[in-house]
Write a structure and sequence with these properties.
By secondary structure, the chain is an alpha/beta fold. Helix content is 38%, strand content 19%. It is built from nine helices and eleven strands. The strands form three sheets. The protein has a seven-stranded parallel β-sheet, with helices on both faces. Helix 1 links the parallel strand 1 and strand 2. The longest helix has 15 residues.
Length: 244
């Protein structure tokens, strides 16, 4: 049995990871900025470093799902690394990243890549897993447009993956130990964004395809966000929609 500290435990991915950690027989700790009567919650703040030393005491593995674009993932993760390195028993750090962070010049992606590099440069054993966009993200982007007459959809392809499939892969690394940079994973199907918009909102909606200038859009158009050779996800977007 491993003692696992989960960051970002209340987020989309974290909520899928937590029950899988428990199901695999590990001892779960969830890092939280607020005090709670829940025995799995450990007070700690990645932004300030407060409470991290206590939360990491006796931890074997960290599954790092927390993200905060405003504060910067690189800075938050460096505080976590610094505390983990000086712990009596340095933990195995598992980090979730995004397919294409090294090819797509989006600001958030550059921050994720810098975070990967900080982890690799640390003295911790680590595992980095890049995944394509979650079903939940694609759904929310198009559902946000449900009340406007014309839906905007970029002229790119997407390979959405179910968050539960990603959670399963992350938790599997708890038992297997540090693996470094692992193969990228994607969902079982690749569709145009327009088709995913129609699936989300209904086939009668008017879709306006978007083609934008710039290197970021060109990188998406080139398919750097896709992993056609490793369709590791098992749940399709249609199955996700049916469950909603």
């Amino acid at each position: 049995m491993n003692t696992v500290l989960l960051t970002g435990g209340t987020g989309t991915l974290g909520r899928a990871v937590a029950p899988r950690v428990v199901a695999e027989g590990h001892d779960l700790r969830i890092l939280s900025r607020t005090a709670s009567a829940d025995s799995t919650r450990f007070l700690g703040d990645l932004a300030t470093g407060a409470g991290l030393d206590r939360a990491l005491r006796g931890v074997d593995t960290i599954i790092h799902c927390a993200t905060n674009p405003r504060r910067g993932d690189r800075n938050l993760t460096q505080r976590l690394i610094d505390c983990a390195v000086r712990a009596e028993k340095p933990a195995h750090l598992i980090y979730i990243s995004i397919v294409g962070v090294d090819q797509i010049p989006l600001g958030y992606y550059r921050e994720k890549l810098a975070t990967e590099q900080a982890i690799a440069a640390s003295r911790l054993g680590y595992t980095v897993l890049r995944a394509t966009q979650f079903h939940n993200l694609i759904w929310s982007i198009f559902r946000a447009q449900r009340r406007i007459p014309v839906v905007l959809a970029p002229s790119i392809r997407l390979q959405p993956i179910d968050v539960r499939d990603v959670a399963t892969r992350l938790v599997a690394h708890v038992a297997t130990g540090p693996a470094g940079q692992t193969p990228d994973i994607g969902g079982p199907e690749i569709f145009s964004a327009q088709r995913l918009a129609l699936a989300t909102l209904g086939s009668r909606r008017a879709i306006l395809p978007l083609r934008l200038p710039g290197k970021t859009f060109s990188a998406f158009r080139a398919g750097y966000n896709l992993v056609p050779a490793n369709r590791a996800g098992t749940r399709t977007f249609a199955q996700f929609l049916a469950e909603r």
